[in-house]
Records
---
Amino acid sequence: MDPPKESSKEAIAKLLDYGVDVKVLTGDNDAVFPLHLFQVGIEAKQIVLGSDLEKMSEVRLSAATNQFNIFAN
């Protein structure tokens, strides 16, 4: 498990303050990445797993990228 860089939490907080919608694409599984999200100050709106992505049409995938902020393995 690689921890987030020390500067991550501050950088993400600044992005959020500027109104940037931060998205996370991770290869980590759902047992690991929630800790990383907490460490960097990101709240998961809803998590989309790779198995969910495989089932989505292109239209649904496009909508999901606007609706959700965490995409994980």
---
Amino acid sequence: MSLLDTILGQAGGNLDVASIAAKIGIDPSMAQQAISALTAAHAQAGDTVETAAAQTGFDAGTLAQVAQQLGGASMLGKLSEMMQGNPQAASLLNMADRDGDGNPLNDLMGMAKGLFGRS
């Protein structure tokens, strides 16, 4: 069980990365990155899905499906608070911040391109 699965379990519901990935038909690593991107984007101004898609290159439709499987905006808000309030959880976002600018979303773009087969 990953740290993200633990946080999802603490947030409520019967959620885990593998089941979300299976329901949408994506790889679990892609689901984990999408959840991290949505969680980070939720703390920013604007539409969460559009912000995450614009900053990462993830397909907005896939991100919307992930958000729906998580339980929508209220669950994203709860996850965002939990991630920001937990140093270990925040490390999930910080791991993706390859350039150290404090915004992991722009760094997820390169990972997303590989997962979605874009160059």
---
Amino acid sequence: MSGRVALVTGSSRGIGRAIALELGRRGHPIAVNYARSKDAALEVTEKIESAGGLAITAEGDVSDEDQVRGLFDEVRERLGDPLVLVNNAGVTRDSLLVRMSTEAWDEVLSVNLRSAFLCTKAAMRGMLSMVAVTSRSA
């Protein structure tokens, strides 16, 4: 698995940051995705590179289909097909149901669920072509 391009959504902070750093340490070229935290994403990228890894920052709101398409186009162009995908992006809008707005509910579903669908769908093209190449050579 070492050396395969990895895209970690929401990897500028928290668990996503830790995953990106570990995958980079293991030799994967990393696409550090962020929607709002550019400086934090740049810091993760710099940390991976200073340890001898290869990383890029890749902006994109993974709950938006057009931005996901652009994100995957950028990663493919700069690093190659992402064959490792970590759907990490997520938001928490904890509230009592009676106090939660419809907008907050929609945002949670969009970022936490829709983004996983959109990114997995976008990643499948490269992943399926890798399976086809691997099975032909076996």
